[in-house]
Amino acid sequence: MLTALGLALIAALLVGPGTRRRRGSMRPLFKGTGRQWRANYASRRTFLRLGAGLAGAALLAYSGADEAVESWHTRQVRGRTSDRVASLVKPPGERWWLLVWLAVGAVDAWVRTSPFTRWGRANFESMVVGLPTLWTLQRGLGANRPSSAVPSPRWHPLAADNAASGHAFIAAIPWLNLARRTDHAAVQGLARVASWVTGWSRLNDRKHYPSQVLLGWTIAWNAVEAAAAASPASATSEERG
């Protein structure tokens, strides 16, 4: 159902409101990707943010806080209601959203541009920027899930691929991009809170520890900031226009 909704949304974009792209105004996908990658992988600010996220994740994993929070949540919070809510908020973190945002970005690049398509394109670009970090830390740190045969949030390089939550990463990006695109403080706050909701669903389903949700979200934050900082100047003028 959600896949059909995504496809219907993309189809609507083809005939919806916006400025039609003409030959001189087209901005192909991946234009500026090199700058965005440099902003993410060769930036002191990005390095410090990721370092802080890793330090926080390590503290949670090795202090026993991960297991304590996960155990408390399972005993005191998890139930039919939380499972029902988690099943509703988990889908925005599924992998196929990368393809949805790719399609929206393609519409923005070659067909017509609007605030919505520029937001969708920013989501795709942010995912392209952040995915290498996500995959590297998932496998490189090698932590297990709470539901694994040997549950442990501690890092065992290359042993597993659960050390950073992919669902938290994918679902956080659209909300963090939305927060960047509004001047309303209340909307910004709600968007930032919402960026954690899918990550919470993974805690509820015993698929990730808090440290792993934190890492996934931190990678998304870095990717959004890097993609925005290094976007071509034409994108900025379009946003304001």
Describe the structure in your own words.
This protein is mainly α and about 240 residues long. The chain has one domain. The protein has a two-stranded antiparallel sheet. The chain is globular. The C terminus is likely disordered.
SSE layout and pairing:
Elements: H1 2-15, E1 19-20, H2 33-41, H3 44-63, H4 65-76, H5 80-89, H6 97-110, E2 112-113, H7 115-141, H8 166-180, H9 185-194, H10 197-204, H11 210-229, H12 233-240
Antiparallel strand pairs: 1-2
Helix pairs in contact: 1-6, 2-7, 2-11, 3-11, 5-10, 6-7, 7-8, 7-11, 8-9, 8-10, 8-11, 10-11
Structural Rg:
19 Å
Number of helices: 12
What profile does the largest beta sheet have? 2 strands, antiparallel
Record the strand order, biggest sheet. Answer: 1-2
Averaged pLDDT, please? Answer: 88
Global morphology? globular
How many structural domains are formed by the residues? 1
Query: What series of H and E elements makes up the topology?
Result: HEHHHHHEHHHHHH
Distance between the termini: 35 Å
Secondary structure tally: strands? 2
Query: Structural class, from helix and strand content?
Result: mainly alpha
User: Low-confidence runs (pLDDT<50, min 5 residues)?
Assistant: 233-241
Helix percent band: 55-70%
Strand content: under 5%
Question: What would the keywords be for this entry?
Answer:
2% strand, two-stranded antiparallel ribbon, 241 residues, mainly alpha
Give a quick precis of the structure.
The protein is mainly α and 241 residues long. It has helices at 2-15, 33-41, 44-63, 65-76, 80-89, 97-110, 115-141, 166-180, 185-194, 197-204, 210-229, 233-240; strands at residues 19-20, 112-113.
